[in-house]
Amino acid sequence: MKAKNKFDDAAKRRVRAARLLQAGHKPAEVAKIVGAPRQTVYRWKDVLEADGIDALRDMSKGGRPGLLGAEELVRLQIALMEGPTAHGFGTPLWTLKRVRVFIEREFGVRYSEVHVWRLLGQMGFSSQRPERRALERDEAAIEEWKKRTWPGLKKKPAERVG
Predict the structure, then answer these.
(1) What crossing angle do the helices spanning 2-22 and 27-34 adopt, rounded to 10°?
(2) What is the C-alpha separation between 150 and 19, in angstroms, rounded?
(3) Are 40 and 80 contained in the same domain?
(4) I want to staple 25 with a disulfide (CB 3.0 to 4.6 A). Which of 15, 20, 130, 143 is the partner?
């Protein structure tokens, strides 16, 4: 969803630049107004003159196309929801390394962990860490210790000599 909003914002910025260009502003002025590089505004101007304002709305966001298609991303999401143990990993915790290894093994695509992080974010997954607490933890005993023992162990302010 976030990527779509960024795309919509970029399209709005291109259209705003187009309207300013149509109103007679110079590309350098438009670049300052919309906060885009001058070269980019000149490219937008060329597209505007050749194909019109609708072509600016429909321009891609640029960049290299993804190595995983929509169908593969759906398969990845399903696999992530099934959990790592269903795919041969020893514990039920996905890590960036594990996801990277899984993608390489399953789809034959090699990504860096940073890109895997971005990919997971685009898919709606977030970073979470398990709580590091012992299973045998006794909450009642801990509360009792905090109320009775801990206050006696804390440093007390030194008494003032008057």
Answers:
(1) 150
(2) 68
(3) no
(4) 20
